[in-house]
Amino acid sequence: MFDDGFIGSHPPSNSSCGRQCSRGSIVLANASRPISAKELRSCTTNNISFIELPIAFDAITVVINPANSWANSLTINELSRLSSKQALGKISKWNQVNLDFPDVGIKLCGPGMDSGTLDVFNKAVNGSKTNSRTDYTSSEDDNVLVRFVMENKDALAYSVYAYFKNNFKSLKSVEIINPEGQAISPSKQTVQNEKYQPLARPLFLYVNDQALRKNKKFRQFVSDYLRNISSLVNSSNYIPLPDSTYRLVDAKLYRHILGTSFGGDLPVGLTIGQAIDRSFDQHKTSAHR
């Protein structure tokens, strides 16, 4: 259902998908991050107007092999110690992440450099989407990440929640120490009750407004998609928004509310409530407040 960045019919990379969307080459895009400032400028240059619709939440999930008995929980500082540029060529053993961990090597695997998941993870953990070590096994295919961890006892990777759920018998999720000091596992409940932070993120649908107005069949497709969105999200192992929010999403499409509420920013650690406020508050009339 979802992929990293802007997607149409499986183009080659997140950045190229964003360019296609902002040039008008595709009329519908799923996105695992808000539209970027660069893509916004491209939309303006190409006279592309769009509607931004939040449709689900995801929990970026850190996974290890079930045989790993020590890394059951990690702090954000520990994740940063392992994944930032400063770790490049230096942090290669588990006990360099935490002294209580064993003196064994770490095998790292993660999303490719064009991944929206990589951008959000790095912003949340390392303070910048470009602050990432590069000496790890990377892939744009989450199935590759899953197999890597399954086959390597000392491996660690991170991916979208759905891939963990689809392979939960063969992977173990790492609890993340949230800002309140609680060790929290990724789940539908912990995202909805706003405890899994800062690795929860909103997911979006971007719709080309010109195509929506001109093409009746396309308009009907998008309408039907939103009518069934809650069941689609659940069946895909992502995390649904409240039903009341989906009614707002439908109203936003019907009223042709254009543009982004995120201004090209890459927000991290938003709760569902905060993401909803950002997505809708500036568009609400006094009657909706």
Mean pLDDT, to the nearest integer, reads: 85
Q: Strand percentage, roughly?
A: 15-25%
Order of strands across the main sheet: 6-5-7-3-8
Uncertain runs are 1-17, 285-289
Class by alpha and beta content = alpha/beta
Helix amount: 25-40%
Number of strands: 11
Order of helices and strands: HEHEEEHEHEHEHEEEHEHHHHH
List the topology elements.
Layout: H1 14-23, E1 28-31, H2 37-45, E2 50-59, E3 61-64, E4 73-74, H3 76-83, E5 107-111, H4 116-126, E6 137-139, H5 142-151, E7 155-159, H6 161-166, E8 172-173, E9 175-177, E10 183-184, H7 188-192, E11 200-208, H8 209-214, H9 216-227, H10 229-235, H11 243-254, H12 272-280
Parallel strand pairs: 4-9, 5-6, 5-7
Antiparallel strand pairs: 1-11, 2-11, 3-7, 3-8, 9-10
Question: How would you explain this protein's 3D organization?
Answer:
With 289 residues, this protein is α/β, with parallel strands linked by helices. It has two domains: 14-57 and 200-283, Periplasmic binding protein-like II (D-Maltodextrin-Binding Protein, domain 2, 3-Layer(aba) Sandwich), CATH 3.40.190.10; 61-185, D-Maltodextrin-Binding Protein, domain 2. It contains twelve helices and eleven strands. The strands form three sheets. The chain has a five-stranded mixed sheet with strand order 6-5-7-3-8. The chain is elongated and about 60 Å long. Residues 1-17 and 285-289 have low confidence and may be disordered.
Task: Quickly describe the structure.
The protein is an alpha/beta fold.
